[in-house]
Model the fold of this input.
Amino acid sequence: MQTAATSSILINGYRIAYEQYGEGSPIWLLHGTPSYSYEWRKVIPALVQKGYKVYVHDLLGYGASERPLEADTSVAAQYTLFSQLLDELGMDRLHVAAHDLGGIVGVQLALEQPERVQSLTLLNMPSYDSWPSPTWKKIIEEQLEQVEQMPRADFDTMLKKQLPMAVYNKELMTGDTLDAYLEPHAGSLGKASFFSHQVAHYNAKYTESYGTDLPKLKVPVQILWGEEDEWQPLAYAKRLVQDIPHACLHVIPKAGHFVMEDEPGQCSDYIDRFCNEHP
Done:
């Protein structure tokens, strides 16, 4: 598996894949769904070159981390595991850049442990009533049982149609890159864990519950948003920047939901600039 998290550590009884790169000011990159730390592979070397010690991990149930079907992989559980992971590594203060589902985890950390977060960059994250996206909302409400039981070949075809929606430049989600995003979902475990650990938590209750707390955020926040996101429209970013005190918004043209795939250079530059403003 082409994860960026090539080491492992035991957290709360679960094997979590993680890795660190470079030396300097610590920053943690949190991935989203349907993804894993692989999505940050273009940003990691750029941040290392800019002088950061970059950390990534695969969320429980994702990528190279353990994927026990009975495990609690709700947003709340992912936050708890992330906090325990930081404790285990002795990380008292760091920058956080968080995409999609990872953004919810990052917001929770900033709300619960603001003293730990030097800065928070949120990238194309679900919020308010935006989760699940219209495509998945229709599937969950009308045909989830059929989709869960569909033949392996049909499941693969569905994912191959879904994943290109995550990028503006559709050529980027082809060949080896598409294969890498599909790899965690291969085999019977891959399909089962996709529904148990990802789709099962595509629920607005998670995004609406923290939405009322956004005005309480006390850490520096910037929002990066791919302008052409087909899953999380730009209107949500504009709402977020109004509700989060002193937040700033940078809209990245010709970029989709996986903004770091379309524009890794702009992502790393914005992250670096913001971190430098909040040492």
Observations:
- Strands lie at 7-11, 14-21, 25-30, 52-57, 94-99, 117-123, 221-226, 248-252.
